[in-house]
Structure prediction request, 1053 residues.
Amino acid sequence: MQVKVDEELVRHIASLSRIKLSDEEVKALVEQFNSILSYFSKIQSESSDLPIPSPMDRLVDLTNVYRCDEPRRSETDFTTLFPNKEGRYIKAPKIV
Amino acid sequence: MKVADVVKSVKSGEKSAVEVVQEYLGVIKRVDPKVHAFLYVDEAGSLSRAREIDEEIKSGRDPGPLAGVPVAVKDNIAVKGMPLTCASRILEGYVSPYDATAVSRLKAAGAIVIGKTNLDEFAMGSSTEYSAFGPSKNPRDLSRVPGGSSGGSGAAVASGMVPLALGSDTGGSVRCPASFTGVYGLKPTYGLVSRYGLVSFANSIEVIGGFSAWAEDLSLLFSVIRNTDSPDPMDQTTVFSSPLAFPGLRGIRVGLIKETLAEGTSEDVISVIDRLISKLVEAGATVEEVSLPSLELALPSYYLLACAEASSNLARYDGIRYGKPCPLEARNWNEAFSEVRGTGFGPEVKRRIMMGSFVLSSGYYDAYYLKAAAARKKIREEVLKALKGYQLLMAPTNPVVAPKLGEKTSDPLSMYMLDLDTVPFNLAGVPALSLPAGKGAYGLPVGVQLVGAPLMDDWVIGAAKELEGMGAVELAGEVARLE
Amino acid sequence: MNEHKVMIGLEVHAQLTSLKSKLFCSCPADYRELQPNTAVCDVCLGLPGSLPRLNGRAVEEVLKIALALHSKPAEKTLFYRKHYFYPDMAKNFQISQYDRGGGVTIASGGYMDFNLGQDVKRVRIRRVQLEEDVAKIVYPSSLMTSDYVLVDYNRAGVALCEMVTEPDISSPREARLFIEKYSSILEHLGVTDTDLEGSLRVDANVSIDGGERVELKNINSPKDVEKALNYEVQRQAMIVERGGKIEMQTRHWDEVNKVTVAPRFKEEEEDYRYFPEPDLPPIRIDPNTLKRLAAQLPELPDQRAERFIRQYGLTAYQASVLVSDKHLADCYERSVQAGLKAGDAADWFMNEVLGDLSDAKKGTKDLIALTDDVIKVVEMVQRNEITGKMGKRLLKQLIIGGRLPEEVPRPIRDEETLRQLVAEVIRDNPDVYEKAKTDPNAINFLIGQVMKKTRGRADPQKILDLVRAALSAV
Prediction:
């Protein structure tokens, strides 16, 4: 599958990623994506006969790593990190 | 001076920890304006800790195997009370409320975190030119890049500003700066050093690694941060293993990876490799060429997988809970998020996040992500198979010496190509070390990689130590004096 | 409105309130009384460098639910990242599970039976999975008019069991009964305290006449399920009857205005970009663990109902009502074990107690502390120490006020006293007395007057006998 990247696709991906782009950025990305993806397209032809790994595959062969169910209150007051706050609440933009 | 000697003099009282720290702070003050390795230096905190260490020693307590040793930490690894910017504007002003496991172990061993070092933004890059706060320079040649993404840490060690530094290695980000600046860089086995506190970029691939000027120092650093007796409960993907004694190079079979010497690898790099081969043979090892054909897929596989994971791991940066604030006046939260991420992230980060979202999106997931995962599995199998026939594999770290600043930044793909020889071992999860074996074009450092089987990190370090002992590592212990 | 074929599928999210800590971090899971953003940490706030740490007990609690739903546990299961941007998601992805592309949820398949009148209805279960809860969003004014929102991450990261059904439910009423039964199962298992606010949340998929399905979100209280679904079914029916077509969309239940609303703007269809969570190793479900859990499974509502029928001689209907709520069933059993007559006690609990609780706006949880006194009252009636009517009144006092009066008024049983009272009433109402010789209503009036004088403390049967005696004595 050779994808032809155009401005519409770039804008769609930018929206999916929640990244605001300027028109110049969009134009530049069309070019860069096309060049990067055409280089990467060899992965499709070369690995077409390779078995798809199970989603359970990991580099380390671990299973059932558990933490015990004991509660712990942190002493840190994390509200000092909040960029916008009201009392102990985080203040966020309205939804709609 | 080797780290062990520093520790000895501090513990014996010959030199105080305060004096040690003051000396290094002095070098930083004089040299860093030229190199820009540091984003943050904690003068007051390190001197205060040094005083504490001196007190402990006076009262007969042992502060640990790294007592009084200053360490620099890459600014994508959490140090409590210090900024954690990841060289990004989106985390400007963010101060970490906790220590990474690797950092708490260093502190518990008596080491002193002297500051945070520069990197490519969110560890995405091979030259440190993608830092939002300006690039670091290569101490060997200030017109050139130090490599990346842990360029600041590499440059700090290579210019004598610190004896030890922590970095992270996702596609070569410790080994590449080590090679370009002429120091040792270790990428441990995946899972052997806890990732807790390492800001995630490609979490199924990356590890915390370290820099030093001497092989012995690297060994000491590694012994402190690794999981020896148990996994780290703070990171459920960790393993542990006891240190292994290296039997010596005599009788060791070394496999030189054919595909890493292909065209694109410059002659001067090949010469350094050849010289190292003769030293290995001199030490009694056998060196043979081995072919790993699937390595051709390593770079595309790595980038597709790493971008996919990056798009996920960086989704959390929206200015709501910490960092650069999200604009409350925006029309709605979607626009607010898009605004803060559009201005807070640099161009390379945006490129990779978007590539990653694309690769994970429905319609393209099978064609790109799954194929990349299949290629990764093949590469890992091939590398592990080779490591059954050979105890060590060998390859150049980079195909060329350090490029000039600005040389690669106009073409992202050409920047990615610098990682050709390093990414296969990230994908395979095996330990890989870059030793500053020799000099190449313009007298610039050339690094050579030694790669071992999973959990055989001590053998890789042991081999480096032995080579250094016989004078085969030209730049060992030789830092650039920029004063 | 015409008859329409309704198909409803439910997605029920139950908090595992039995756990002491959250799913992926050690923050306390019991967040309800706390100040905002105090039960938080680097993990549930998604701070840079944080990593999830799986609570092992959560897996066992979900396996218990799976066993109770006859759902088949997987041999190996894993977590996935589900990506969407929202202020209540600390990482802008939720660690959840997925059942496609090689993904396996903790359990799949299964069914739940519940009583539908005289019949038993079976609803098939599609899957059971484990995932993390999201933060709470508070609106300074209303959803539509607030300039900004406030976010509290205390709830973020609490363990949730998501259970998805096939669209086998055929009416809003069935949905309510289904949820009630599922609630009771969760209570009997001890995994969820369904009385806690927000512990059980429901999303539904509703379609009529084989049309497109509408997703209904934000039904935050099980009590609203039938209302919300009724509204939606009627809304769709009206559109269809006017010749329109239902389009596939997501609507929200507005619990204040009691309507379902479509979002203001057309949301781009969410692409969740699922991929396996790299920071958590897979889980291998050991058959021995399953054996142990199955053996230790507490008595579930169906088994309990069967036992009530067998052990206490109850009817199927009585048993099903009692086990529909664990607290009710517990209190009932306590009362029988304390010596009350089983069948009679069942009627007391099903009729008087439930009714009084409803009037007092209390729940069955409040009944627990009152049970000993309830037993006392019913005992007195069963031993004929007080009349049934007095018992009912006392019970009402107890449940509404929280305690019995210092001295329980005793019935007036003394024949002489009663005869005098009857005589008094006859003296005061001579015309009625005359009428009473032929008219039964007049007799009732006289009885009523005597009851008034005794303030209800006499046995109406006894008074009737005395009035009749007085009438025939003439």
